[in-house]
Amino acid sequence: MGSLDGKIAVVTGAGSGIGRGAARAFVAEGATVGLLDRNAAAIEEAAHQLGQRAYPLVCDVTDEASVASAFATVRERHGRLDVLATYAAVQLVGEDAPVHELDSEVWTRTHDVNLRGVFLCCKHGVRVMLASGDGGSVINCGSPTGLTMCGAGWHAYAASKAGVMALTRVMAADYARHKIRVNGIVPGTIETTLTRTLVDDPEIRAQLTALHPIGRIGTPEDMAGIAVFLASDASKFATGAHFHVDGGISVR
Ligand SMILES: NC(=O)c1ccc[n+]([C@@H]2O[C@H](COP(=O)([O-])OP(=O)(O)OC[C@H]3O[C@@H](n4cnc5c(N)ncnc54)[C@H](O)[C@@H]3O)[C@@H](O)[C@H]2O)c1
User: Fold this and answer.
1) Does the keyword Transmembrane helix apply (predicted)?
2) pLDDT digits over 190-208, tens only?
3) Distance between CA atoms of residues 149 and 152, nearest Å
4) Which residues contact 2 (CB under 8 A, 6 or more apart)?
5) Which residues are part of the catalytic machinery?
6) Ligand 1: centre distance to CA 227 (Å)
7) Whose CA is nearest to atom 32 of ligand 1?
């Protein structure tokens, strides 16, 4: 028996990294998972790997018609949504910068995916949860950069993540009466496509490792357990919280 047996989930950013790891863990725990990503090839491959309880939802989270259509598909298939986990994001390494040097187009592109994309997925995902009347669990992915100094240099990204974390709290307050819990996950540095250019540079990798008292940077597998916990009924009294799974970066 899995802790998510029978649950219907959507994971955004499921084509890669932390989202893909969460989707894999949800399926292993018994959930049926819509793999939402703009990278069609990646989610088709993931669906193939994960088997019959995973299916691709090709969607650009910055496009409201695309998001509405993906959640309409979920509603038609299942009539409900129990878990929405939002991981789709970009970090424009090499373009993001301190505000006095930051191109406003880079700000807009970052916020379009990272904050507006989370808003749109929450908007259409919560509508499905409200329509079923059964409640649900929303899990939004924040970042230490939204809270602490470790976002230095990445002003657009850090501000977008701070926005996601504020949205998480206010949603938790307003949807609790509908039995919809809303929590955030705060990862440390995790080795994924997003961080590839950073962790592949030995000097930057050493600097990033030194930020983590636990002595290493993380993997998508390190982030899967917290997502399963928040998706499951084991966390039924948790809402409006941010769960740090960050190798100790926040207490260094
Ligand atoms: N990797 C880290 O060190 C780290 C640290 C803190 C927070 N995070 C957060 O974790 C989450 C997952 O990051 P990751 O490292 O796994 O990244 P990743 O780049 O490996 O995966 C991100 C996924 O989002 C998808 N995506 C991007 N834009 C999209 C769009 N417009 N529509 C639909 N899908 C889109 C990409 O195709 C990709 O599959 C993000 O929210 C990120 O900000 C990551």
Assistant:
1) no
2) 999 999 999 999 999 999 9
3) 6
4) 28, 29, 30, 31
5) 157
6) 15
7) 60
User: What ranges do the domains of the chain cover?
Assistant: 8-191+220-244
DSSP string spanning 33-74?
A: EEEEES-HHHHHHHHHHH-TTEEEEE--TT-HHHHHHHHHHH
* Whether the CB of 37 sits within 6 Å of ligand 1: yes
For residue 235, CA distances in Å to 79, 180, 238 come to 23, 12, 5
151 lines ligand 1 (CB under 6 A): no
In the chain, at which residue ranges do the beta strands (DSSP E only) sit?
A: 8-12, 32-37, 54-58, 83-86, 136-141, 180-187, 242-245
pLDDT in tens, 81-113: 999 999 999 999 999 999 999 999 999 999 999
The ligand 1 atom nearest the CA atom of 114: 41
CA of 13 to the centre of ligand 1 (A): 6
**140: CA distance to ligand 1 center in Å?**
12
**Any atom of ligand 1 within 6 Å of the Cβ of 187:** yes
- Tell me which CATH homologous superfamily contains domain 8-191+220-244: NAD(P)-binding Rossmann-like Domain (3.40.50.720)
Q: Is the pTM of this model over 0.85?
A: yes
Any idea which residue has 């809402």 for tokens?
Answer: 239
